[in-house]
Amino acid sequence: MTNAFNNRIGVFDSGVGGLTVLRQIYRQLPQESILYFGDTKRLPYGTKSAQEILQFVREILYWMQQEGVKMVIMACNTSSALALEEVRTEFNFPILGLIHPGAKAAIKQGKRIGVISTVATASSNAYRNAINELEPDTKVWQIGCPEFVPLIEQNKIYEPYTKEVAQKYLEPLLRNRIDTLVYGCTHYPHLEGVFKEILPSYVKLVDPAYAVVRAIAKELEINGLRNRENALATRFCVSGNPEEFAQASKGWLGFTPNVEQIHLQPHFEVINNSGEIRDSQDDVYAESLIA
């Protein structure tokens, strides 16, 4: 497949969390056209197994490839932690994740770094490994926060219970005197107001969304993929209820998006990097995944 500079960039997450990345793309790369996918039918990702996440990611990437994207951004830390390295060898367009850009941004801010994330991301040690690879002497504490994504997706950000949950998750990090807090899930910037009420003013907040969009800009330049025409309107797609996503996202986007429901092709598994795929249920071979 030949990527055209005016094709869309694919951006995906389990739900509205990836909108924090989308907003940074709007600010930093306003000329780029975007295909946004929220896998709302299967959220939250943070409680799923690594094998499930890998299968979800492959299905999304296969669909995005069929839609002709020129690049894909995993606007989901769980997917970045558990699937990025494997799927990069299976598709012939650039795929960027959040972990390494986030780690690079974090080490510029402090030496005692707390990372809040989904349970799956915390268990993977992806942020600790990435940070310590760059700065071995930096202290890193990771906390899995399973209640945050459901609360954000249900638009319960400003309810008192949400602040209680945040205090519970942040307390061990504060005991360890962190000087930097990394949003290890793209949903979490939606809770920034809550965090600022709890954290001391000296704790710096790191949003990997900002850093990953800077990486996107470099990747577009290197590959000659920067758009030279006017951006198309963002296309929003979900696997679950389109109306629920539209209502949940309008406060963050500043408008109510038109949202399509997409049914992903299930069961397909990549079996080699030449692009051959098979149906994992009945072993029937399918047409080439990579054109």
Automatic annotation (TrEMBL):
<feature type="binding site">
    <location>
        <begin position="186"/>
        <end position="187"/>
    </location>
    <ligand>
        <name>substrate</name>
    </ligand>
</feature>
<dbReference type="Pfam" id="PF01177">
    <property type="entry name" value="Asp_Glu_race"/>
</dbReference>
<comment type="pathway">
    <text>Cell wall biogenesis; peptidoglycan biosynthesis.</text>
</comment>
<dbReference type="GO" id="GO:0008881">
    <property type="term" value="F:glutamate racemase activity"/>
</dbReference>
<comment type="function">
    <text>Provides the (R)-glutamate required for cell wall biosynthesis.</text>
</comment>
<protein>
    <recommendedName>
        <fullName>Glutamate racemase</fullName>
        <ecNumber>5.1.1.3</ecNumber>
    </recommendedName>
</protein>
<keyword id="KW-0961">Cell wall biogenesis/degradation</keyword>
<dbReference type="InterPro" id="IPR033134">
    <property type="entry name" value="Asp/Glu_racemase_AS_2"/>
</dbReference>
<dbReference type="InterPro" id="IPR001920">
    <property type="entry name" value="Asp/Glu_race"/>
</dbReference>
<feature type="active site" description="Proton donor/acceptor">
    <location>
        <position position="76"/>
    </location>
</feature>
<keyword id="KW-0413">Isomerase</keyword>
<dbReference type="InterPro" id="IPR015942">
    <property type="entry name" value="Asp/Glu/hydantoin_racemase"/>
</dbReference>
<comment type="similarity">
    <text>Belongs to the aspartate/glutamate racemases family.</text>
</comment>
<feature type="binding site">
    <location>
        <begin position="77"/>
        <end position="78"/>
    </location>
    <ligand>
        <name>substrate</name>
    </ligand>
</feature>
<feature type="active site" description="Proton donor/acceptor">
    <location>
        <position position="185"/>
    </location>
</feature>
<keyword id="KW-0133">Cell shape</keyword>
<dbReference type="InterPro" id="IPR004391">
    <property type="entry name" value="Glu_race"/>
</dbReference>
<feature type="binding site">
    <location>
        <begin position="45"/>
        <end position="46"/>
    </location>
    <ligand>
        <name>substrate</name>
    </ligand>
</feature>
<keyword id="KW-0573">Peptidoglycan synthesis</keyword>
<feature type="binding site">
    <location>
        <begin position="13"/>
        <end position="14"/>
    </location>
    <ligand>
        <name>substrate</name>
    </ligand>
</feature>
<dbReference type="InterPro" id="IPR018187">
    <property type="entry name" value="Asp/Glu_racemase_AS_1"/>
</dbReference>
